Request: fold
Amino acid sequence: MVDGLFVTDYFTRTPRKLSPFRSFASIELFHFHIPEDTVIAVWNLITFKEQGGTFGDQCPDRSITVYFRSGAPSVINPLHTHFPRDTAVPGSFALTLTWTLPNRTTGVFNVTSPLPGDWFLAAHLPKDEGKISVKGLYEECQYLFQPQLIVQRLVNIAVLYPGHVTEQNMAPHNRSCLYKVFVPSYTSRVLVEVLRCRGAEGCPLWLRVRAKAPPLHNSTTLDCREHTPCQLAQDLPFWQHWYYVLVEKHPGVPGTVSFQVTVQLTDCSRPSLARPPFLPSSASMNMPHSFGSAGGLALGDSPPPTSSNDTKHPVSIPVTSHAGERCWPVRPTLRNELDTFSVHFYIFFGPNVSVPPDRPAVFVINLLPVLDSGGVLNLELRLNVSSLGGENVTVFGCLNHEVPLTSSDNTSVTCETESLAGFLLSVNATASLSRLRIPYPQTGSWYLSLRSLCATEHGFEPCTNVTAEVYLRAYLSPCINDCGIYGQCKLLRTNNYLYAACECKAGWNGWGCTDNAEAFSYGFQLLSTLLLCLSNVMFVPPVAIAVRSHYLLEAAVYIFTMFFSTFYHACDQPGIVVFCIMEYDVLQF
Reply:
């Protein structure tokens, strides 16, 4: 039995007609927002058929694929095409709906303790079979999709103040107590400890910690019965987020269990000292909640977009560290908005960056919530080889979300920890250029840490007296390389959310229209263009007959139509064999 006050919220979206998948531009995208302290989210996925304004009982059953992702739209690839080079593909969860009734089906998708913030659903029909049919001879079958979201969240969760001790007595009928603590910026370590635990069988408690949402059975866990003192540490915690602490009683333990719980936050700038109590103005001291058994599906444990208002042009230089050992300056970037999803991030006193041998160079890129998640985040590193002085230097870059990763291990080149995943870039004298593209990035703060290491016979070692110089470029674009010459970048909208996607042509496919597995050859494109244009020669016999019969007005009309039809088709081809003598809209008119 769950104790505490729950609030249930209900959200729904208007049904939309689904289309067969050709590219991301043909999917239907739905945007939801899950509030903080949500313990369960349930999506009802309703699909029904229509034909001629009535239920489409005679329509064939076509499977419907639905994708879920937290923080940004899903990067999907149902046709298994190739992505452009240097493209990172974020993961998402997908399910397929099958029909249980002739004209209607319903699916349910549960998420226990979902990450708060923006969630996106994408849905589409399978790829069309390519059959040609005459439109208007029969009523078209339509497949409509409507998602509904029900969330249940706790209110008045007990707040832990860093450095303060909270006492708790867990009654026999309760199984757990839930708390949360806010972790501000420049915190390098979170330490949760259970003190003075007294029960019928020693300290029969589990201690679980999770960022952003209440813990699950697979969250970071410590058995207080086997560890004394009962301490659970989280290095490199996410900044500007709530951390949830769940103290859970072992099953079958009789009587009341009493204990104390406290949290210590380590300040990056003063690693030997604990951070003084800090709490956002919206927080308040409340009593803890007691829970029944926990469990369910944990989805989207990648960082969601931050809800705080990030300063576009910070003037202070904060610091960061690894595991509370050292602090390094974090250099801000200047945001310059040129157009929709066209944003350049300029480095103060850049774009050339000096990477000293004894410490990393750390930069922060702030993406605005919702507004920036529909484009592509591009990062480019170019090494100035002349600055190496003949040394075998490699500059490694780690791009991480919401917390910088500056490893104290001088020989390590990984950008991941147990709870933190990132992207690795590297440049050296042989490969002086490295690029990274992230379609539909999660919003919030992205941190880039650059450090230089020298290659030796025993691996990488710290360099001495060599300061590498790197050209750094970071920007947002609507599509990857503007979809190339075989695609068109389209700006799409679902309600008030904007996103961009490529629509490919001439048989090219893929996220950036770079997959040529089914592409038309140049000869085929040239032949099809010539045949289509030369088909207008059929106007010549009517023109000759009209001139011979002295119907000059009719002959002029035929010549006029033949001329513009020929060049209209020459300008309307989907490939690279295109010839336009004037604006396409003029020819079309």
